[in-house]
């Protein structure tokens, strides 16, 4: 059933100007905010207004509430009154590329970030993307149009490497081909998949403006309960993780790296000790300003007091101002033993077991005060 619109997008877009300066419609803006309509606006009215506002108004300045309404009521909900195929087709068929670019950017930017996520995405290429009624060919064509017509603006990207296989492979390859524009990236998936590895290998030397890099694994909710052998995530073992970092060299502009907790991996029998290989690569990122490191040194035999082999790398992170270390005392102690030079550190955040590092904290604060920093280091404990 089509959307109950008084005016369809096919009526609007053929006469809609393609220039962003002419996309505003004062008459529509007055109608959209007309006091006379307040109090009698139905859900169909809201959907209509969202669609028309998307097609005609200042896309990049629409309020978050409106963008959220478009996303939840028109795109996500699989109801008979929400024909989101019509929404995609209406914008895409008429090739108003400026409108497509503005719409895509505004919708993605308008989605409130999930807990723990600091980034919005210009492009969110996840496995759920394939669950829309839009054909993979049209989706890839629309993505290429967006990338080609969004100028040289930097991209904030979420890419699930599972999209490197199957029908979404053209989308993944098109996005990776633009990796020289990636300002921030969250990469999720299984590095052991051959297609995923070949897709990721295309990033070699193509990250000149990357500033934020976040690694993630497949969420637990997406793991089939009948799976007998699980090898998800970049933290599964050291060789895969090492190979990922050797794909660089990463840009000197890299200022933030988030390393997720390997708790899900641990639940399948990995003790996660290999995560320390990351410390060997931090000195390749001299501009690093913030480090959020989640780690768990769970032992299969239940002896949580047993320490892995100590980290021997001596690190110097001259620009690091914020350090977040989670979950285990050993991870905290090891980092402070290894990273002996943190001249710019301002804030240190530990998990609740941080009492084991009181001596390291005291020494760090003393060094700050000796340099004339009366405030020392701001310390907070997570609970």
TrEMBL record:
It comes from the Eukaryota. This is F-box domain-containing protein. It comes from Schizophyllum commune (strain H4-8 / FGSC 9210) (Split gill fungus). The lineage of its organism: Eukaryota, Fungi, Dikarya, Basidiomycota, Agaricomycotina.
